[in-house]
Amino acid sequence: MKRHKVDDSENELYTRFRYQPITGLGYEPGVNRRDPSTIIKANKKYYIWYTRNECTQSSWLDADIWYATSDDGIDWHEQGAAVVRGAPGSWDEYSVFTTEILVAEGKYYLCYQAKKNNDPLNVVGMAWAESPDGPWQKLDDPILTPTPDGKLINPTEHGDSNWGAATEIGSWDSGALHDPGIIKFNGKYYLYYKGHAIGEKMFTDSKWGVAIADKPEGPYIRHPANPVSNSGHETWVFPWKTGMAAIVDWAGPEKGTIQYSEDGVNFDIVTTLEDIPPAGGAYVADKFLDNKDGQGFSWGLAHYGGSDWTFLVGFTCDLTREGDKDLGWHNFPHYSTIRDVLKDPEKFGLKRNNLFKGC
Questions:
Q1: How many other C-beta atoms are found inside a 10 Å radius of the C-beta of residue 230?
Q2: Predicted structure pTM score
Q3: Is residue 116 part of a domain?
Q4: What is the pLDDT of residues 226-245, one digit of tens each?
Q5: Which one of 57, 169, 309, 332 has the lowest number of neighbouring Cβ atoms within 10 Å?
Q6: C-alpha neighbours within 13 Å on the C-beta side of residue 142
Q7: Is residue 96 part of a domain?
Q8: How many domains does the chain have?
């Protein structure tokens, strides 16, 4: 009880998420869209960037980065490619994906994962533009690469994404750098990223690190306290009051939490959450102001990956410092539900249209 500071219903960083369809980026056979970026507003429109491919083997590899715009955050219009794969033999020849936007110093920056053919390691690349509509200019080299240790059994035989086949386990971020996102904080640029070690399991052992630079383009120096989180599948940080809040979703012993840090490095659990948006990208109006007065957010997009083609959905929440929270029990029937029953009710002798008759 000494650790019990406040009930979740009274916790300022507690919320429940509500989902709804959007147009223009929804389910479309033949097209995968996933991993949406933070949403920004420019030219009186909302902008979002995301991974897109038309591949039946993977929804995130063999991909390019596209963007879309919207007047209201619900009806989206796909505009085309923003950053595409590099020339044969380049470090980004196979895929550019899982991107995040940064607005700084009068320019727009996209940081993203990149892969070369038959190489299990991922690097972080960057492109910049004078306008959110581009054209985008890639930096010649990655801004962050894996820690160079650990030994794969045979890199050419495990070339797409399997860095678990190893004769020697490497550092926590030796295998791949995923989900990069840059935010200005305390006058510097904090690049958060997810890391995997060579020789460890593919998804369940992910951790977060941070690298810091004086300029958006780098050079980025890893913080000595890394990893700064022992959990989380996608990195998701936003300004909150004078510090930084982090939504730590699936994977790891502290999954399903919101954590807070005054310095952007040392995070403490504040509350737990349910049904967190997968790879959520929120509209955070003050994300790039670095004004020590973070207000939070109330809506965004996420991806749904449980179907044959991945697509984007909208969500709303109550992660703002002002206003009432919608925590009505009847709107969120989590307790006493079993997800296996929700997924396949017929297996348990229950008709799908009877699932929520008691709610």
A1: 17
A2: 0.93
A3: yes
A4: 999 999 999 999 999 999 99
A5: 57
A6: 21
A7: yes
A8: 1
